[in-house]
């Protein structure tokens, strides 16, 4: 079953007013530390470091209100921020929400977004600790996530990949992009392909997988938010390495192949260029940690596997040693 | 001298692309911890607590591009967030920026905003540690500020005011509102009134004043962002007290009176209803701390000074024992 659509009626933000809007958000996603000028958080352990990240979501740019629901949008907004916290090997602690929408927006839209935010935050035992609401031309929200990096190991950075390591991934690759194209096609989506639409509307992130990878010795990590090859390419560039992905480890699965046939799209495009799966991708020496699978290997920057060079196709990533066919990533101002 | 206006030409965000936009922001407001999935921060002392707040700024709602400059807008965006950190008695540590604007926006607009942000962050020895940029219908930015609350004293909350305390203020009251009306009037602003316009374009916040008040024994604090009586009213309500302000301590000064005469406005309106001065207002037993001045007193909720009751005018705040004439505050969805 696929739910789509935003509330169309009921009292509006302008009718209920700012105080009631804020109250409805706090009710839907409660926290004892929300409601003052700023939220005071207690670090979970004395030697932990703070980690912070932010993402902005713009209606018409990052989502269409006819292709998702406000509840699922709220969940997804948290996932995309918490994935960035996990990708440092850290543990999410709290989130803040900035929100603007026209005064004519049904108040239920905001309540549902806040419910979705609260539901996802709950999975982590975390809370919405602060925010700001305001009128604006269209729906724009910005979530900031704060996390905690415990212990003495370094964070998992984009620059931490080293030649000889294994590339590992946790979660689906290409599902979100395929799901979006299915939803955009305006067709009745076959029941067996619904997991693709769900992956787009509300990608799944397993709490703690970034910390697991860090404990297992991972040294670099990111999530595929802008496209697999784009994001792996950034990691390879920052680390000064070349990454070779194994075709049979990332090959489109049955669902992606079926969706590709239905829409007349090469499913490899979704795998290579699709973002928003928020699948964690890291590198480490040796075996893949629990929940992760190997998808490639890290090499020295000067290729030794043949004629492939970085300059030939822009990013230092190959698939089975060859230049990939699809390398585009998300570009914010295109 | 009053500067106004945004860049009108030069390369656009769409022309230079996301990577170059991000680079220009990081160059204008540099930080060694910016640029990964999330920023890792070191707490300044082992027993400190994190403090976080966020604010959203929408073009046409919170600012007009013909009444300010992108540099001043960047500074102000930091001040309004850092004032919330100071209002907890905490020390600002870092900021994150989410930013959306049409692809046709001159790239110089973003660079100038980032320069303003960097200039203000610099005053605190703090850095822009992360962010997100995206295309959108209009310019919307959200700043999140992170601070540190050291030591064992409790934070300065909205609920901390107690009967018998003195109300103290640090900074101007009413200047920003008067400055906005002068700028909106489209007149040539007399040179002696320029400080009012500057207060609107870029309010001043003295680093450390919140910590000073906390050290001096303040128990509650806020800043006048939405209007003096509104914000003091929220503090009084949350604390379960009534606050009486001294008319001669908050009376419009020479500049406000002169601006009122010029525009035909009662300057008391700017004092009572004007926000965005981001002046810290707190309560404590005894003398005003360095940099603060007494502006009123805290009383038990049942008024003992006469016939004034909360119900009569909505908020538990009086001026010299009387119901104030101007009590409106900023309403986000009006």
UniProtKB/TrEMBL annotation, chains A, B:
The EC number(s) this enzyme carries: 2.7.4.16
Residues that hold substrate according to the record: 62, 276, 330
Annotated residues for binding of Mg(2+) 3: 37, 84, 223
One example of a Gene Ontology biological process annotation: thiamine diphosphate biosynthetic process
Record: residues binding Mg(2+) 1: 54-55, 132
Top-rank taxon: Bacteria
Binding site for Mg(2+) 2: 55, 84
Span of domain PurM-like N-terminal: 35-148
Pfam family, one: AIRS
EC class: transferase
Residues where Mg(2+) 5 binds: 226
Positions annotated to bind ATP: 131-132, 225
Family annotation (InterPro entries): PurM-like_C_sf, PurM-like_N, PurM-like_N_sf, ThiL-like
Catalytic reaction annotation: thiamine phosphate + ATP = thiamine diphosphate + ADP
Pathway of action: Cofactor biosynthesis; thiamine diphosphate biosynthesis; thiamine diphosphate from thiamine phosphate: step 1/1
Binding locations of Mg(2+) 4: 37, 53, 84
Function noted in UniProt: Catalyzes the ATP-dependent phosphorylation of thiamine-monophosphate (TMP) to form thiamine-pyrophosphate (TPP), the active form of vitamin B1.
Miscellaneous comment: Reaction mechanism of ThiL seems to utilize a direct, inline transfer of the gamma-phosphate of ATP to TMP rather than a phosphorylated enzyme intermediate.
Family: Belongs to the thiamine-monophosphate kinase family.
Protein name stated in the entry: Thiamine-monophosphate kinase
Organism field: Corynebacterium tuscaniense
Gene behind this protein: thiL
């Amino acid at each position: 079953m696929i739910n789509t659509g935003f509330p169309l009626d009921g009292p509006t933000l302008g009718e209920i007013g700012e105080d009631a809007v804020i109250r409805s958000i706090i009710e839907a996603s409660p926290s004892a530390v929300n409601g003052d000028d700023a939220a005071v958080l207690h670090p979970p352990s004395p030697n932990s470091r703070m980690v912070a990240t932010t993402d902005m979501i713009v209606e018409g740019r990052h989502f269409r209100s006819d292709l998702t629901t406000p509840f699922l949008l709220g969940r997804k907004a948290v996932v995309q921020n918490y994935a960035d916290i996990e990708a440092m090997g850290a543990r999410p602690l709290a989130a803040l929400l900035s929100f603007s929408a026209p005064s004519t927006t049904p108040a239920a839209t905001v309540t549902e977004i806040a419910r979705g935010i609260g539901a996802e935050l709950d999975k982590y035992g975390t809370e919405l600790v602060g925010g700001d609401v305001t009128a604006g031309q269209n729906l724009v929200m910005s979530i900031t996530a704060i996390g905690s990096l415990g212990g003495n190991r370094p964070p998992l950075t984009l620059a931490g990949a080293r030649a000889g390591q294994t590339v590992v991934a946790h979660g689906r690759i290409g599902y979100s992009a395929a799901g979006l194209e299915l939803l955009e096609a305006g067709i009745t989506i076959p029941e067996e392909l619904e997991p693709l639409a769900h992956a787009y509307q509300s990608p799944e992130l397993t709490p703690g997988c970034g910390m697991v990878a860090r404990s297992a010795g991972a040294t670099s990590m990111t999530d595929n938010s802008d496209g697999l090859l784009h994001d792996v390419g950034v990691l390879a560039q920052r680390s000064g390495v070349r990454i070779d992905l194994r075709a049979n480890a990332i090959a489109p699965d049955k669902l992606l192949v079926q969706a590709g046939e239905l829409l007349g799209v090469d499913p490899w495009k979704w795998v290579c260029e699709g973002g928003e799966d928020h699948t964690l991708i890291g590198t480490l020496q040796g075996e893949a940690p629990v929940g992760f699978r190997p998808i490639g290997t890290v090499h020295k920057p000067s290729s030794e596997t043949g004629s492939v060079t970085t300059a030939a196709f822009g990013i230092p990533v190959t698939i089975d040693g060859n230049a990939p066919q699809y390398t585009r990533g998300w570009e914010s101002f295109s």
